[in-house]
Amino acid sequence: MNNTSANPIPFIDFGGSGQTIHFSHANGYPPLCYKPLLNLLSNNYHVLSMLQRPLWPGSDPKEINDWSPLAKDLLSFLDQRSLTTTIAIGHSVGAINSLRAAILDPNRFKALVLIDPVLFIPSVILFRKLIWSMDLIYRHHPLIKAARYRRSEFKDRESIIRGFRSKPIFRYLDDISLQTYIEGITTAKPEGGYKLTYSPDWEMRIYATGILRDMDLWRNIPKLEIPVLLIRGGETDTFLPAAANLFKKRLPGASFLTMENSTHLVPLERPVDVSDAIHQFLQEKL
């Protein structure tokens, strides 16, 4: 699965017409998790979302040692679809992949929307690189521990919804958004029941290899010449104020929006508000 040009990259077409939006999903959150948001965006745009490498048949987590191949996958997908220019929107790791792709090939993108990107200040990046070099990342990364012990098979989706409803991380998801999320992360098994669509091994690999190459992002962010919008969850534990402030210094022309009563899952929690903000930004900038 390394030669992306020779293998069609799977994707979901959410429909719509007008300018093309490509949406890059987060680690462990397949595109269908974002249906409320992407369906809203398709009212004004043609929305596509490729399945990232962890969702490709036969892909191996050992294929990557950092996230840069994921950005190159996005560029390969655009080539496969003959998309010379598009609007790139991404959430979490998807935001980083979109950002890096825009840095690698700036002429391919009309605008960039980063929703709670996994972007940390240089001191955190250097510390993460140290932990990686000491082969300690799988032991000490909290999200890796959670992914390793997460239940992966279920009798029915209703029991998942009941179990997840009380988890603090989902406190701002309404019932429809939570149900959509559950449907997005699970796949029916031939023998009955459901399993997680995302491989735990791949999820852990994404967490383990994250931010290792991100000093290149900080060096190149000032070179961006396209309109950029960053959307933060007001209670995010990911895109922290220090990183947001540094981004503002590196790219003063970027637009910023913080949505209160939301977390790192802001595109799932506030699909209407996020869609409205993106549409307004694109109307003003393009």
Please provide a written account of the structure.
The protein is α/β, with parallel strands linked by helices and 286 residues long. The protein has a single domain (11-285), classed as 3-Layer(aba) Sandwich (Rossmann fold). It has helices at 35-41, 68-80, 93-104, 122-133, 137-140, 142-149, 157-165, 175-185, 200-209, 215-220, 241-250, 266-269, 271-285; strands at residues 11-15, 20-24, 46-50, 86-91, 109-115, 153-154, 186-188, 194-196, 228-233, 255-259. The strands form 2 sheets. Strands 1-3-2-4-5-9-10 form a 7-stranded mixed β-sheet, with helices on both faces. A 3-stranded antiparallel β-sheet has the order 6-8-7. Helix 3 (93-104) links the parallel strand 4 (86-91) and strand 5. Mean pLDDT is 94; it is low at 1-5.
- Tell me the series of helices and strands, N- to C-terminal: EEHEHEHEHHHEHHEEHHEHEHH
- Tell me how many strands there are: 10
CATH superfamily: Alpha/Beta hydrolase fold, catalytic domain
- Computed structural class: alpha/beta
Q: Indicate how many domains the architecture comprises.
A: 1
Tertiary shape: globular
How far apart are the termini? 36 Å
Beta-strand share of residues: 15-25%
Give the SSE map.
Elements (H helix, E strand, L loop, with lengths): L10 E5 L4 E5 L10 H7 L4 E5 L17 H13 L5 E6 L1 H12 L4 E7 L6 H12 L3 H4 L1 H8 L3 E2 L2 H9 L9 H11 E3 L5 E3 L3 H10 L5 H6 L7 E6 L7 H10 L4 E5 L6 H4 L1 H15 L1
Parallel strand pairs: 2-3, 2-4, 4-5, 5-9, 9-10
Antiparallel strand pairs: 1-3, 6-8, 7-8
Helix pairs in contact: 1-13, 2-3, 6-9, 7-8
